[in-house]
Amino acid sequence: MNLYRLCLLIIFLGGYVSPSLAQVSKQVQYLSGTDNEHTVEWDFWVTGGRKAGKWDKIAVPSHWELQGFGAYNYGRDYVTYGKNFQFHDEKGIYRHSFQVPKSWKGKRIAIVFEGSMTDTEVKINGQLAGEKHQGSFYRFSYDISDKILVGKDNQLEVTVSKMSDDKTVNNAERLADYWILGGIYRPVYLEATPTAHISWTAIDAKANGSFRSQVYLSGISQPGTLHVDLKDKTGKTVATKTVSVAAGDTVKSMELQVDQPQLWTAETPDRYEAQFTLRSKSTSPYLHHERFGFRTIEVRKEDGIYVNGAKVKMKGVNRHVWWPETGRSVNRKLDLQDVKLIKEMNMNAVRCSHYPPDQSFLEICDSLGLYVLDELAGWQKAYGTSVGKKLVKEMVIRDVNHPSIILWSNGNEGGHNKELVDEYRKYDLSDRTVIHAHHRPGNEINGIDCNHYEDYYSTKKILEGPNIYMPTEFLHAQDDGGAAAGLADIWELHWNAKLGAGGFIWDFADEGIVRTDFNNTIDVNKVNAPDGILGPHREKEGSFFAIREIFSPVHIKMKSLAPDFDGRIPLENRYHHTNLQACQFTYKLVNYQRPYANFAGIDSAQSQVIISPDIAPTAKGQLHLNLPQDWKNYDALLLTAIDQHGEDIYTWSWRIKSNASILADVLPLQTATTVDLQEDSANYMLKANGISAFISKKTGLLAELANDYSMKLSFQNGPVLVDGSATLKSSKLYSDGNKRGIAFFYEGSLDSVRWTMHPDGWLQLEYAYQSKGNVPFAGVSFDFPENYAISVKWLGNGPYRVWKNRLQGVTRNTWENMYNDSKAGIGPWTFPEFKGYFSDVSWMQFNTTQGKFLVATAQEDLFVRLFDFYGISGPKGYPALPTGNISFLDAIPPIGTKLAMGINSKAAVNGPAGELTALNRTISRTLYFYFGLPKGEKENTQFIMPKVNVLTD
User: Fold this and answer.
1) Are 802 and 542 in contact (CB under 8 A)?
2) Is residue 799 reached through a cis peptide bond, with omega within 30 degrees of 0 on the bond before it?
3) Which of 39, 117, 629, 739 lies at a CB distance of 3.0 to 4.6 Å from 33, suitable for a disulfide?
4) How far apart are CA 194 and CA 286, in angstroms?
5) What is the pTM of this model?
6) What are the distances in angstroms from CA 779 to CA 433, 764, 884, 920?
7) Do 260 and 164 belong to one domain?
8) Which positions fall inside the Glycoside hydrolase family 2 immunoglobulin-like beta-sandwich domain (predicted)?
9) 631 three-class SS
10) Spatial CA neighbour of 156 closest among 96, 99, 111, 93
11) Where a domain ends, among 550, 578, 597?
C-alpha cells in the first residue's frame, strides 16, 4: 500500500499506524480506490441496460450508471409505474483478485464496505462471507479470517442488486424523491487486527469535563489492562486511567475528569483525542484512537435545545451527498467544500438528508463546527423492524463519537418505524435525543416538532407550544423560489420565540446528474431535483448571499444613514457562545466608478480597522466608527465583519451621497448643440448633439431613436404602464431655457408624460401615474430586443437580482453583468443571472449590438427589470412579469415556493415581506437617457485603479 493511501486511511478511519514494532494497531489494505477521484478497476458484468451481458472493467468506487452501464432511474419512476409493475432489477457482478501480506497470518481479517447499493452478497474464494447485506448507506463488514489465503491470490466476487429483496428497504430508500443509483460507491478495504483487539468505542464527554467511555473488546483470552490517555489539541495529556481486563471481557467502562476543558460548539470546535491501549503479558500493546469533543446537548422540553447551557437556534440546510459526474460517490475535498459553503452562508447546522453521509463529511463538521442531524434513511416509508435494527446499529456505531452530531433523525416524512427509537441508546452512551423529520401532525417526539413546510402564520401558531419547533425542511428552494425568499420573516419568528429552534432549508444544491447516455447533459429530472441554493457544481445563486446576510451572527437592522449619523451602528450579537470582542470589524469609505470608466467597481477608498465592541452572546450594543472629517465627500460606507477564525461574516453598504449628487457627476458633458424640435404627421422629433428621439403624437410613447454615429436604436414603445391603462387626452410643446420638449396628458392611471431634450443630448423623461390597491409591480416599461443585449453596467445593489421578499444579499457598488440566459435550477447555472429585478439603481448603462445607452435618475429606490425570466418553472413561469422588456419600477413582486400553496403559491403566506405592495397614491419619477457615447468623451481604456489609502487609529 502506498503512502498516499495510508495517509488517507488514517484520516478516513481515524485509525493509527504506529512506527514502533512494540505496538500494533489496525492495519488496512484498500481493495478499491479511496474515493471518486482515486479508483481501482475491477471486472464487472451488469444484467440489464447499457453494456449488459458482457464482462468489462469498472472503476470502484462508483455508480455503474455513471460508468456507462445499466439505466438511470429517478425514485419517482418506481412510483409512476404503479404497484403491479415489475421493475427490472439490474444486478452488477464485481470480481477482483488480491493478496494479503504474509505478516497477516494468524490475524483477524475483515472485509469492510463503506457503502453499496443496495443488496450486497460477498464471496471470498467462492465462499459466502456472510448473510446478504441490505441497505445502501451504511458501513458493513465480514470476518473472513477463515477464508483468506495468506500469500496467495484471493478471489473476491460481489453481487449488488439495485433493488432489495426486502420491500421495506425499497420503500425506505428506493421509492424516494432523488436519483436511484446502483453499485459499490464507497471504498472497500481489508482490516487486520490481532485476535485480541478493541472493536469500537462509545464516548460521552460533557461540558463539565466528565469523560465516560464504553470500550468494546474482542478475542480477550487472557487477563490484561486497558489504559486511556486524553490529549488536548496540542498533544498534551490531560487525564489518564487504567482498568483491568479479564479473559472473556467484551466491554469495559472508563470514567475520567478533565478540569476546565476547551468546549466543542459549532462556533468553537475544539476537540480532544482519546488514546486507548490494550495490554496483556503475551501480546503487543494494541492502540486505538478516537477524536471527540466535550459538550453537553440538552433538549429541555417546552423550552429549547441547549448546547453547553446556552439555547441554540439552528440556521440549517438539508444536504444530499452528491456530485454531478459521480453521484453519491464523492471525496474529502468535496465534503470540505460543502462544509465551507454552508458556513459561508453563516449557517451553523446541517441535516444529513436522507441517509448517513460519508465519514469524512462528519469529521469536517467536527473540525470546522456544524451541528449535525444524522438521519436513518426512510423517505416517507420506513424500514421494517428486523432490517431497521441492523441499520441503526451500523449507523450509530460508525458515527457515535462525532461531537457535531447532536440529534439522531429516525427517518423522514412518515418513514418512521417507532419500534426503532429505543435502538439508538443501545449504542450511544450519550443517549442523544431521537427526532422524527416529518410532514404530518402527530409525529412529534421527545418534545420536538419538526413539521415540514409550515408557512409564516402556521409557524406562529406552532410556536405557541407546547413543543419545541424545529422544521427539518422549510422554504423549498426549487429554481429561484423559496430558500431566502421569506426567510427573514420566518427567522425572526424563531429567533424571538421561546420555543423556536430554527430549522433546515430545503436544500443545499441542485441534484443534477451528468447523463452518460445523453452526451453528458446535466439532468435535474425537471422540477423534481433542482431544489438547491447552489447549482449542481456549487454555483452560487442569489439566495446564497441573501441567506448569508439574514443568518449573519452580527445582526444589523440599519438600512440607511440618518442625517445626523455620527458613526454609531447598533448591533445585535446573534452568536450563542461568542462575544463580539472575538470578531474584527473594518470599514471603507468608497467612491464608485462612473458610467464611462472602463471597468466596474470601486474607484477609490479609505479603510480603517475598528475596535470590536464588548457584546455578549444574544445581547445588543453599538459599534463606533471613527470617521474622518471628510467622510461625507465619499459615495458610500462599507462595513465588514470578520469572525474569530478570520473568515468574513458579511459586508454591509450604505449610500452617503444621494442620487442627485451622483447624477451631478454623470450629466455634465463636454459638447452641446441647439435643441431642434420638428414634427410630421406621426411623430415629434427632438434632436441635439447628434441624438434624435421620435415621440408618437398618437400615444406620447418613444417611437424611434437614432444618433449620428451608429445605427438606429430599438429602445422604444415606452413609457407603458405595467399596471393600469391610459388614453391620451392632449399634448403641448414647451421650451425651458435652452431645452425643448413635449408634454402629454392622459385619462386613466397615467397622469402625464414629459419628454425634454437637453442641448448636450440628454433626453429627460418625467412621468406621473396613479397606483391603487395592492400591486405586484408598479412603474413603466419599454421594448428592446433581448438578443441585442451584450452586457449591463450599473451603480446600485448587485450583482444578484432580487425579489420583494428577498432584498438581502446585495451590496451597493458599480457592477457589470454579461448577458446570459441562465435559469436557476435549470441551467446553464451562470450566475449572477443577467435577467431579473435589480434594486436601488442610480444609473444603468446598456451595451448592445446597436451601441451603448445610459439611464440615470436623481431619485432613490428605483428597480430595473431586465427582460423575460421567471422564478419557478411550471405550467407557467411564476411570478407573472410586467409588460415590455425593460422596466423602471417602484414596486416589484415577491416570490413564493414550490410547496407553500402549489406552483402559483401566494408568497404572502411566508410573511409580511411576501405581501403585495400597497400603493394608493400618485407616483412621479424622472429618468435621464443618453443614447450613445457622448461626443468628446472616451472609454477610459487607460484607467488605473488608485491605491487604497488605509487610515489607522
Assistant:
1) yes
2) yes
3) 39
4) 8
5) 0.93
6) 53, 16, 11, 13
7) no
8) 203-295
9) helix
10) 96
11) 550
User: Looking at 550, 565, 594, which one is the last position of a domain?
Assistant: 550
The answer to whether residues 442 and 470 belong to one domain is yes
Residue from 440, 352, 439, 452 nearest 404 by CA:
352
**Could you identify the residue written with the cell 454579461?**
818
User: How far is residue 37's CA from residue 27's CA, in Å, rounded to a whole number?
Assistant: 23
Paired residues of 522 in beta bridges: 514
Name the residue range of residue 584's domain: 554-666
- Report the distance separating Cα 926 and Cα 857, nearest Å: 6
Supply the pLDDT for residue 82.
52
Number of domains comprising the chain = 5
Helix axes 332-344, 359-368, angle to 10 degrees: 40
pLDDT at 905: 62
Neighbours of 152 (CB within 10 A): 10
Q: Are the CB atoms for 532 and 826 separated by under 8 Å? A: no
Distance CA 136, CA 153 (A): 29
What pLDDT score does 282 carry? Answer: 81
- The per-residue pLDDT for range 39-72, each reduced to its tens digit, is 999 999 999 999 999 999 999 999 999 999 999 9
Q: What is the pLDDT of residue 667?
A: 82
Mean pLDDT rounded to a whole number for the chain: 91
Is it true that the peptide bond before 628 is cis, omega within 30 degrees of 0?
no
* Structural contact between residues 311 and 298, judged by C-beta atoms closer than 8 angstroms: no
**In 3D, which of 582, 601, 578, 603 has the Cα closest to residue 591?**
603
Burial of 110 (0-12, 13-18, 19+ CB in 10 A): middle
- Give the bridge partners for 642, in sequence order: 584, 648
Strand 778-783 vs strand 683-688: parallel, antiparallel, or unpaired?
A: unpaired
The string of pLDDT tens digits covering residues 507-555 is 999 999 999 899 999 999 988 899 999 999 999 999 999 999 999 999 9
Q: Are the C-beta atoms of 552 and 650 separated by less than 8 Å?
A: yes
d(CA 112, CA 147): 15
For the CA atoms of the chain, what is the radius of gyration? 32
Note whether 513 and 476 are same-domain residues. yes
> CB within 8 A of 487, min separation 6: which ones?
475, 505, 546, 547, 550, 806
Based on the domain organization, do 829 and 690 belong to the same domain? yes
**240 phi and psi angles, rounded to 5 deg:** -140, 160
Of 63, 704, 102, the closest CA to residue 329 belongs to 63
User: Quick check: bond before 324 cis, omega within 30?
Assistant: no
Q: What number is the average pLDDT over the span 351-357?
A: 96
Q: What is the layout of strands, in order, in the sheet containing 763-771?
A: 726-736, 739-748, 750-757, 763-771, 921-930, 851-856, 843-848, 789-798, 811-818
For the record, the C-alpha cell of 520 comes out as 453528458
DSSP 388: H
- Same domain assignment for residues 261 and 352: no
- Provide the grid cell at 98: 488480491
CA distance 387 to 637: 60
Whether residue 825 is contained in a domain is answered as yes
The proportion of the chain whose per-residue pLDDT surpasses 90, expressed as a percent, equals 83
Q: How far apart are CA 871 and CA 881, in angstroms?
A: 10
CB contact at 8 A, 903 and 874: yes
Cell numbers that stand for 103 in this block: 505478516
Contact by Cβ (8 Å): 302, 315 = no
For residue range 457-513, what is the model confidence (pLDDT) as tens digits? 999 999 999 999 999 999 999 999 999 999 999 999 999 999 999 999 999 999 999
- Tallying the residues shown for the chain, one arrives at 953
Same domain, 599 and 618: yes
Residue 868 and residue 891: Cα distance in Å, rounded? 17
CB atoms within 10 A of CB 635: 25
- The DSSP code sequence of 398-445 is HHTT-TTEEEEEEEETT---GGGGGGHHHH-TT-PEEEEE-SSTT--B
Cell numbers that stand for 179 in this block? 436519483
User: Omega into 354 within 30° of 0, i.e. cis?
Assistant: yes
Calculate the dihedral angle through the C-alpha atoms of 730, 733, 734, 735, rounding to the nearest 10 degrees. 160
